[in-house]
Amino acid sequence: DFHINVNLSVVQLLQQNVVENVGRILSRTGVNPRNIVLEITESFAINDMERVLKIISGLKALGPRIALDDFGTGYSSLSVLADMPADVIKIDKSFINKGMTEQKKNLLYEIGRMVKILHKDIIIEGVETEEQEQFLKEGGFTCGQGYLCNCPVPIGDFEKMYL
């Protein structure tokens, strides 16, 4: 019952054989694809929607979940949110890290409602303080990501803490 998130770079996603490459890696490593979440940035997703949808459909057919990363960073579109076959929407940390105004809180709550209506999971990035965590709980958000949970650590330290 764990997920490992893997960021796919624009360079990787532009490769003609990205789906085949991911399939070979999954096969070679023997990892359960259901334990993998492939993250694709929102900015890539809107550049060539037809091609992106084909790639994402191919990746999903391999078994991993798909996350739309950095949602809300300037290219956001409700049609992208509705059309994207992503399983997870990751809201960019700029929503909570540059001061929590009432307008930002309300906007984040509404985005959260829309994502839930679309039956997608939502993760709020950049959770660094207990105040931010409390805000997320009050808004009904169940998943955050950020330094409040932990900062990046070397693999040896990670194994000591979690394995």
Written account of the structure:
The chain is of the alpha/beta class and 163 residues long. The chain is built from 9 helices and 6 strands; from the N terminus they run E-H-H-E-H-H-E-H-E-H-H-E-H-E-H. Helix 8 (130-138) links the parallel strand 5 and strand 6. It starts with a strand and ends with a helix. The model has no long low-confidence stretch (mean pLDDT 87).
Give short descriptive properties of this protein.
alpha/beta; 9 helices; 163 residues
The first-to-last residue Cα distance is: 13 Å
Estimate the global geometry from the Cα principal axes. globular
Alpha-beta content class: alpha/beta
Mean of residue pLDDT values: 87
According to DSSP, the number of beta strands is: 6
Low-confidence stretches: none
Radius of gyration: 17 Å
Helix share of residues?
Answer: 40-55%
| SS summary, helix count | 9
* Beta-strand content bin: 15-25%
Widest sheet: strand order?
1-2-3-4-5-6
Described by strand count, sense and barrel closure, the largest sheet is: 6 strands, parallel
What string gives the helices and strands in order? EHHEHHEHEHHEHEH
